[in-house]
Structure of Iduronate-2-sulfatase:
Amino acid sequence: MRHWMLLTILFALCKPVAAEEPMNVLFIISDDLTSTALSCYGNEVCQTPNIDALAADGMRFTQAYCQATYCGPSRASFLSGYYPHATGVLGYKSPRPQIGDRQTWPQSFKDEGYYTARVSKIYHMGVPGGIESGGDGRDHDGGNGADDALSWNERFNSPGPEWKAKGTGETLEGNPNGLRPVVGGNTFVAVEADGDDEVHSDGKTSAKAAELLLAKRNRPFWLGIGFVRPHVPFVSPANYFEPFKPFSKLELPERIDGDWDDIPKPGINYKTSVNMKMDSRRQRKAIGGYYASVAFMDSQVGKVMTALRESGQDENTIVVFTSDHGYHLGEHDFWAKVSLRDESSQVPLIIKVPGKAPGVCDSLVEMLDLYPTIGNLCDVPVPEHVQGKDISKMLDDPTHTVREYAFSVAPMRKGFLIRTDRWAYIQYKEDASGGIELFDMETDPKQFTNLATSPDHQDVVAQMKQRLTAKLTEVRSNELATSSN
Ligand SMILES: [Ca+2]
């Protein structure tokens, strides 16, 4: 019997002493959200008051990194507790066939008597295709995408019109003559939609989340709320676009001449201003559309937090807010995800634990650390296989550290990132034959100067190369031990 069950019974017998209630977990994840678009992370144009309020009440991490820079492998990783190269889940698949009967993060709570549920996208789901049809467009499982049935007591999808929403839309990508209609797929499209929040997937998600939070139940919960914005298409009710108009007033990020000259080929992101054929007007509108999507998603976070307060459980619920990876908004003329630069590999992360003082933590952390940390905070056993580290001490002391570097991968580019406080080391292919990038994050935080071939930095390059080899060996040393990863 779980100790809280026992305590509940004991305390019920010994009233009026209040029972020590088990802690709930409310896990909120946005899709493709870069921290650089949040006002609590310093954005001065895009205002995110609800996420800011959560940050003001919790611990905001400034150096949190995803383990893979796109949806599928990132989500499979932090939910299973394994690095992508441990399971070999490098694409858009459920980790279940690889992990067998080992527990996922929500499953470890479910098996301890928690009610576990997800609303919308927690494991991978195709956006927009899957959302249009109410599940995943490419990996069906009865409409549940790359989901994992064993993780949940209940699961809810949130279909929405996505790019087909009624309103004013424009395809910004691959549309230099302006003749291309509004399209679906992984395409930069902005739609200023008619109607209110609940027309859209995320509006339905926040409403369902509120319903679940307000429902009476006699056991604690682990509730995963997945918002699909600001993932493309940039669709939101038209009012969320207003603060960013005219789009011509939006600033493009700083750029320098010859920026691509020292970048190895796989380091040029898969989406660029050039191959997307986006002129500066379209680039500015893309930023405006992204910000509108962020503002819309932020509003939904506010509704979820209001419901949590109304439910009377906010003093008994750990809240985590994050994203599956970051996003480029035109830095180096790069757009979207996959890149291993900070805009794409670093994620927003806020952890609010009742009773703990708010703060800002600059220590390096990984999304993999969520599983053991939240498990330990809730006194839920953390399985041996979990490869992340417990960072709960950082919630009492933000100067606490648990790792010298964060590790992330971009399997689509055979890319690897070793990120220390000082250096961002990016290597393409395990033998480095795809090229290397090294950035001094103290003197060059925007990553304009690749020092990989600088004679003064060969010792750093050698050390990082060695670290990467050792890390991959460590990641692969597990009981799954599949040599193909
Ligand atoms: Ca994503």
Q: What stands out?
A: Residues 328 and 338 are 9 Å apart (CA to CA).
